[in-house]
Amino acid sequence: MNYPSRLIEDAVGEISRLPGIGKKTALRLALHLLKRDEQQTTSLADAIVNMRTKTTYCVKCHNIADDQLCNVCSNRNRDHSIICVVVDTRDVLAIEATSQYRGLYHVLGGIISPLEGIGPSDLNIESLLDRTMQREGEDQVQEVILALSPTMEGDTTAFYLQKKLKTIGVRVSTIARGVPIGGDLEYADEITLGRSIVSRVAYD
């Protein structure tokens, strides 16, 4: 494609590096930004630069943060006796969107995957164990919820964590797995349906 400007071509090249964005979409976005008020474009650029240079990670749970502690860990209105273990920040956002959980989080930063060369030492597991070992004070952990995807790697990670946490004496639970609301049984795979039967609850 022949671009009318080298500057446009450079912008399209950088934008198209983003996931899910091809050259055509990148060109459309670049031309859109070019038509907008200069201040709006500058504000966008500043926001991206600030995000990249000033964003840090919570020293306690490893979630994305602006300061040493994220807004969840620093919130004394949260239940500090429960920790929900997730893979990354996207999982935190998904759970927070439900407004059903008021405890803390712990971001592993990945899952155990021998095929990809990722072992327990590559994840934020030791800091999780340190948090659960604290047996005194108001931040004493009573329960750890394993909110990991039901994949082979996710189950391997959950099994490893369960073994480690069991030695500490903290209660370990996992999120329920079953047929989604609005789903038909005939379309559910055998594993999901089987887990739904095994993990059945009392009908209220």
Overview of this structure, please?
The protein starts with 5 loop residues before the first helix and ends in a 6-residue tail after the last helix. The relative contact order is 0.08. A four-stranded parallel beta sheet has the order 4-3-5-6. A two-stranded antiparallel ribbon has the order 1-2. Helix 1 crosses helix 2 (23-35). 40% of the residues lie in helices and 12% in strands. It is α/β, with parallel strands linked by helices. The protein folds into two domains: 6-54, Helicase, Ruva Protein, domain 3, CATH 1.10.8.420; 68-174, 3-Layer(aba) Sandwich (Dna Topoisomerase Vi A Subunit, Chain: A, domain 2). The chain has helices spanning 6-15, 23-35, 38-54, 89-96, 126-133, 152-168, 190-198, and strands at residues 56-57, 64-65, 79-86, 103-107, 143-146, 171-174. It has seven helices and six strands; from the N terminus they run αααβββαβαβαβα.
Topology of this structure?
Elements: H1 6-15, H2 23-35, H3 38-54, E1 56-57, E2 64-65, E3 79-86, H4 89-96, E4 103-107, H5 126-133, E5 143-146, H6 152-168, E6 171-174, H7 190-198
Parallel strand pairs: 3-4, 3-5, 5-6
Antiparallel strand pairs: 1-2
- Structural class call reads alpha/beta
Question: What's the CATH topology label of the largest domain?
Answer: Dna Topoisomerase Vi A Subunit, Chain: A, domain 2
Terminal-residue CA separation: 63 Å
Poorly predicted sequence stretches spanning 5 or more consecutive residues:
none
Number of helices: 7
State the major sheet.
4 strands, parallel
Instruction: Give the total of domains.
Output: 2
Which oligomerization state do the chains in this entry correspond to?
A: single chain
Tell me the Rg in angstroms: 22 Å
Number of strands: 6
As laid out across the biggest beta sheet, the strand order is 4-3-5-6
**Can you tell me the overall shape?**
globular
